[in-house]
Amino acid sequence: MRPVFLANNINELWDMLRQHPEAAIYAGGTDLLVRMRRGIIDPSALICLERMDCLRGVREDGDRIFIGACTSHTALLADPIVRRHFPVLARAVSRLGSPHIRNMGTIGGNIVTASPAGDTLPPLYVLGTTVEIMSMEKTRRLPIKDFIKGPGRTDLGPGEILAGVWIKKDQPFNILSFEKIGQRKALAISIASLAALLRVSEEGIIEEARLAWGSVGPTVAISEEAESSLAGKRLEPGALSEAARIAMDAVSPIDDVRASKAYRRLVSGNLILRLGAGLDENALRPAWPPIAG
Amino acid sequence: MKIRFCLNEKDMEIETRPDRRVVDLMREDMGLTGTKESCGSGECGSCTILVDGETRLSCIMLAAQLDGRSITTIEGISGVEGLHPLQEAFIEHGAIQCGFCTPGMVLTSLDLMGLKPCPTREEIREAISGNLCRCTGYQKIVDAVEAFASKRKVPQQ
């Protein structure tokens, strides 16, 4: 029999971790319990965080927002602060799993699982998210791109938990997009996804671009070269095609049951082209009327 | 491990393994076989139950997590007078073919209508998007939920 401990507060959690340092920690269980059932992992004990109220919720703190790691995807989607400040994250969460998975799964779980296909990761990358890690001894913060080390691997050490994420509010982007390619709308593991934030001037010149792809590399793929190729250009097909070409070389997809490497590479580029074409439908806050062609 | 919870409006106290899956607990220990298991990995919605009124997948939930919660399975929604009116609507609209997805579809729709008493077809489709029907009878399921919502005079939850 495998003991399952429900931590109600942080002191209980530290006690449990001290007594069972090898326990696996979960919140929603939508990834961990599936892997346990398949025999991929066989932890000797489990610690469930679903009742840790102190790790749940969204709050404003100066120029930043803190999202507790145990906040469910459903709660994120309903949260007015998230919808107002981080619509790119809300859009990605709306495509994550299914309503049931969103009721159970949490943003912290999605991050710590560190799946290349984790739907919250590309938006969290483009938003410049900082993760907060707690242990009994100390609290530390680091950028999400340094926290995620590889597929299923993070910087979490023994006795540490992800407490939540910090995201700067009022980021000066006026065009945003999250698109996920999968076999169906709900319950699809992404074949490729792109989160994009653009700051475009009133004259239609791209001043800054942030791009992050999911499912086309061991972790979230980023391309500073593709981003800087867009800066200073008009948001139109020529500039997007150039960035798409760079992106196709920058990603490192694999063949798997869902799609081929070649298809993923092509789609990674084509998702950039759509930043121009689908503005009215795809951008939640278009700054000016979409450019034809 | 001793677990206390409310199951279909009855207070229970049971002795079970804390890592027992809730779907196994319901079907094998409680004899409530209306909760179905299909994929066993949270991808099909057959094992949907309501926990404090909100949908959960009982195949990826452990017994220990039930402690202190209020659980509704499909057996808990019909009364002494017979089936729940939403179940009647499923029958009337031909929304049941093999029936395996039906308990999950019904409970998921009740959760939706607790939040939105008169959902649109699109909202119904979105709400049941995590419940797979391999007979692909989705139109009739949406018809049934829509008809139930529009006929209902008093909100259910």
Provide an overview of this structure.
- Chain A is of the alpha+beta class and 293 residues long.
- In chain A, 34% of the residues lie in helices and 23% in strands.
- Chain A is built from 13 helices and 13 strands.
- In chain A, helix 2 links the parallel strand 2 (24-26) and strand 3 (46-48).
- In chain A, helix 10 (224-230) runs antiparallel to helix 11 and helix 11 runs antiparallel to helix 12.
- Chain A is globular, with a radius of gyration of 19 Å.
- In chain A, 50% of the residues are buried.
- Chain B has 157 residues and is α+β, with helices and mostly antiparallel strands.
- Chain B has five helices and five strands, in the order ββαβββαααα.
- A five-stranded mixed sheet of chain B has the order 2-1-5-3-4, covered by helices on one side.
- The longest helix of chain B is centred in the C-terminal third of the chain and has 14 residues, at 102-115.
- Chain B is globular.
- The interface between A and B is medium-sized, with 25 and 30 residues.
In short:
The complex is a heterodimer of chains A (293) and B (157). Chain A has 293 residues and is an alpha+beta fold.
- Give me the strand/helix succession of chain B: EEHEEEHHHH
Biggest pleated sheet of chain A = 5 strands, antiparallel
How many beta-strand segments of chain A?
A: 13
Radius of gyration of chain B: 15 Å
- Trace the largest sheet of chain B across and list its strands: 2-1-5-3-4
Average pLDDT figure of chain B: 95
Biggest beta sheet attributes of chain B: 5 strands, mixed
